Each structure stands twice: as C-alpha cells, then as structure tokens.
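Tokenised fold entry reproduced for absentees:

. . .
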Amino acid sequence: MSIVLTHAYYLFEDDKEQKIMKPYAPLGILYISGYLKKHNIINDVFDATFYSYKEQLKFIEEKQPKAVAIYTNLMTKLNVVTLVKELSTNSVFGFPKIILGGPDVTYNLKSYLNLGADFLIIGEGEETTLELYTAIINNTSFENVAGIAYLKENKVVKTAPRIKMKDLADLPLPNRAAIPVDKYLKTWKDFHGKSSMTVSTQRGCPYTCKWCSTAVYGQSYRRRPANLVAQELIYLKETYNPDTVWFVDDVFTVSHKWIKDFHKEVIAQNAIIPFECITRAERLTDEVLQLLKEAGCYRIWIGAESGSQKIIDAMDRRVDVDVVKIAIQKTNKLGIETGTFIMVGYPGEDETDIRETVQYLKDANPTHFTITVAYPIKGTSLYNEIEDKITVKPDWNSSTDRDIDFKRTYSKKYYNYALKYVINDVNASKQQKQGNYFNAFKMKTKSLVSQTIMKYYKD
C-alpha cells in the first residue's frame, strides 16, 4: 500500500511560464512527503512540472496506490478537475481514494466533492494527511480526523478544525530527494545563467489585506527556528549548490528578533546563499536592511499594490504609500535590488488613482515590478465585499476565480489597457533615465496608445 502525492501543473502547457522559465519545486507536497516519511509511511511523489498528464496517469497506474493526494490552487484547478474525473471513473487506476488539499478547496467543498474527490483537507496538510491515510488503510472511522470534509448521504460533513502546528521545529525538511531537482537547476542555469531554489521559514501572515487568501495557514505567525533554517541552507549548499534562494514567506522581516537570529546563524554556520525575499515597507528599518545585506540578501520585494493611498486604505493594507516609496529608495541606495507588486482595477479605483500609481513607481524606482488586474478569490474579504456586484461568474467546472468579474468604476477592458499603460509609461521613464531614448520613445508611444483606448472603454 502507498499514497501518491502530486499536483497538476505541467510547465510545457504554460505559455507564460515558458517565456519566463523560473520554475520552483512544489514545497507543500514535499513537506507532507517528508512528514509521512518521518512517520514511516511509504509515499511516492509525482512532480508533474516537467512531465505530461499522460505520464502522470501512467505513473499512478503502475503504482496502484491506495490513495492519491493532489495539491490544488487557482493555477492548476482546471487540470485537477480533469485528473479527478479520470481517477474516479477509470478502473485501470484501482479507484484510489482521492484527497485534495490546497487553498482552492476550503471554500468550494461541495463542488470538489461532487466532482469525485473522496476527501478534502482543510488547512495545513501534514498531520491531517497522516491521520487520514492511516484511517484509510486501517478502514477506521474518519469522523475523528480533524480538518477534513467528505460526503455522507450526499451532504458535506466537516470534521472539527485542525489545530495549527505551533512548533515548526518539529517539521522535517521537505523531501526534495523525491523529485528531479536537477531539472529545476538545469532549467534555471540554461535560461538565466544561475540556479535558484525555494525555502520556507514561516507559516501564516498576521496582516489583513482584503484580497489575500489565508485558506491554508490562516491569519497567524509561526516561524521555524533560525538555526534550523541555517542548517537547511547548508544542506542545500552541500547537496544541490544553488546560486540563489527564494524565501517564499509572506513577510520575511515581520519579526526583527528572528532576523537578528537568522543573521547570526547564517554567518556562524557559514550558511550564506544569496537570497531574495518579500516583506512590508514598515518592517524594513535601516538596521534590518543592513542585517539582510550581510546575510546575503540581493533582492527585496516590497508590497505596495497601489500608488494611491485611497486604494491602499480600501485594501486594508495599513501602510502609508510614502513609507513604501522611501523603503524602496533606501533599499536601492544600499545596493540591494528591489521589486514591488501592483494591482489595477480594485473596487473604487479611478483614473486619478492609476496616474498616482504611475507617478509612485517612477519616484520609488523599483528594479522590478509585477502588475495584475484585481480578481476576487472566494473566501477573502474582497470577495465578500463584491459578491453582490458580480457581473460574470462562469461555470465552476470550467473556470477559476480569475474569470469572475464584478462592477468596477470602469469596465474590465479599461483596466486591461490601464495595465499596459502603467507598464509602458513607467518603463519609458526608466529607459529615458538610462539614456536609451529610442526604447523610451517606443514605450511612450505604446503608453499613449493604451491611454487613448482606455478613454474608449471608460464609460
């Protein structure tokens, strides 16, 4: 008997990622694999990233597992739908128990269970997967397994909530040996000249941004001891020798005490690997910036979301836009690259707010920025606020929350062009400052075209 842990992301079906080619290993299921292994549970991992759907099915058919656990999120949902239907109806796979977990299941219980899933894991997966799989192989009751949902007489049964893991020191390292790490490293090297791996030090986020989902780890803050993180970095250096590390934590510098301990441990243990991280502007003091630089930080992503204080307040970001701008400027001055995240089309955003965002980006001058049109994820405060204003809600089986639209200040097409306006206008300014006047002219022309089309879709 065994359990197969997998996901439904296939790199070579993702046109956008094929242009970027910065894939990362599925840490979530690797943590579960490591936890099961620690408790002597045989498990197999099929990391679908570099493989196809057909290869995934062949693997499961050969293994004939007692259970298949699939990580599910917005990006992979439609592939998960296809995979669940196949596993639940085709006898060649032996009709394994199908377990789904991840951020998209919590607020779509009945839909996933009606699809053919046997169990849904709500929240963190390690302890729940262990207890649930044990119940499956021993054919015992599921009622006492906390943190799951299943159908009984066509009604959704939710067991008691799973208490979050308090001591993350008990977590074993993610079972990276179960996947082809070499494929990730080679892809990074081939396309970018250096390799990168991910590390997680934190679970939960104590902040209240309305658009952010807390479906898995909750609104909390729990941290692995800094000395254990340093030991993991040493392990990565000795085993895989990555050129860089990406800390996937939501707010890396939320605890200044932890940052001081981390700084001390990576230096003492000779565990420094150049890294990038995400944080909030108000958690970046001069001292913290210096500690990060000495610990190997080469890039910091500082959340902004908008250059308009009105929109930041509407998001419940609880930060001053000028504090964000100054933090980016100070980080640049220290020689650390900066990145920031921008969202357009948030409820209430108008033309003035968008122009303020453009000016903010020009003034702050981050090294990189990403931008998207806002969309409501079910279960978030944003979704609850706009639920009665939804104008487009496609069929659940063939869409994701990204396809939902709602009544905004202007049409969604307006914000699609606003996104292009922001990108081109800000980058034109960057090119001009660097003396690349021809590139600046081309980008400014694209910016003006986008602004013209925005006016067409304004009403």
The mean pLDDT is 96. Residues 3-158 form a domain with the Rossmann fold fold (CATH 3.40.50.280).
